[in-house]
Amino acid sequence: MKNYENETKAGIIYGLSAFILWGLFPIYFKQLHELGFAEIVAHRIIWSVLFLYILLKFSKKLSEAKRFFTNKKTAFLLFISGVLIALNWSIYIYAVSIDKIVDASLGYFINPLITMLLGVIILKEQISNTGKFAIFIVFIAISIQIYDVGGLPFISVVLPLSFAIYSLVRKRIKIPSLEGLFVETTMVMPIAIAALFFIAKSGQNHFDFSWFGLFITLCGPLTVIPLLLFNSAALRINLSTIGYMQYISPSLQLLIAVFAYNEPINTAKISSFVLIWIALGVVSIDGIYKKKKQI
Questions:
Q1: What is the DSSP letter of 258?
Q2: How far apart (Å, rounded) are the C-alpha atoms in residues 72 and 68?
Q3: Residues 144, 146, 147, 148: what is their CA dihedral angle, to the nearest 10 degrees?
Q4: What span, in angstroms and rounded, lies between the C-alpha atoms of 230 and 184?
Q5: Cα separation of 244 and 57, whole Å?
Q6: At 237, is the secondary structure helix, strand, or coil?
Q7: pLDDT at 36 over 80
Q8: Does the pLDDT at position 295 exceed 70?
Q9: Residue 16 CA to chain centroid, in angstroms?
Q10: How far does the chain reach from its first CA to its final CA, in angstroms?
Q11: Please, are residues 287 and 294 in contact by the beta-carbon 8 Å criterion?
């Protein structure tokens, strides 16, 4: 019993650490303001691959990861997932670079409900009336944003949509997360290298062998370490607990955006956030009720 309690406590610490790190990402990426978002994403891919290579080599899992390159179907799906995660990173870093962290935060709050919707449409998963109501509220929140900005709120919609589609693709591949991240980022690394080549050729390269260059290489560990912590948490605590923890990241990002970087948040955005929180609250309460009913 004591060992179970210790494992649970460790799982909660790992989970909190992962989501707090993800929540603090805007602070790190703001320090790279001299770089364009494409240059940051390219470095993030390359240094993630190198860091993952070292981890897999050290843990003797590299040969296991390499075999996924030889299966054409798996390799193709991992290339697609690599493109999707690179797109997701690009939109997020772009949002940070143009002072739209509030919009990114809104997108991450919407993310679980977008994933739920795609599960129903593509995987034909069953959804409760509560889930349908929550998704309907999300559409109202997005409609408010469309009315406010006079068009589709690109960041708040495409950010969660790209990650939801990424999750669906990865769901079809039976591969551990670290090995999967290594293969998918390796598959798109030639694009990242080509991007850095053109950036350097245009005279816009910011990487050099200095403290700032070292700071750029932290893109790799900062991408992988929260994922390691998340995986460690997932092994020790139930998914419902992790589900509630996931709102720590966008909450921190929202606070950082408003209080650290003075991003404006008007009535329309506040209304959208309130509606999303209501939707998430309804789904969470319904989940707790069903879980108690099963006991």
A1: I
A2: 8
A3: 80
A4: 19
A5: 34
A6: coil
A7: yes
A8: no
A9: 15
A10: 20
A11: no
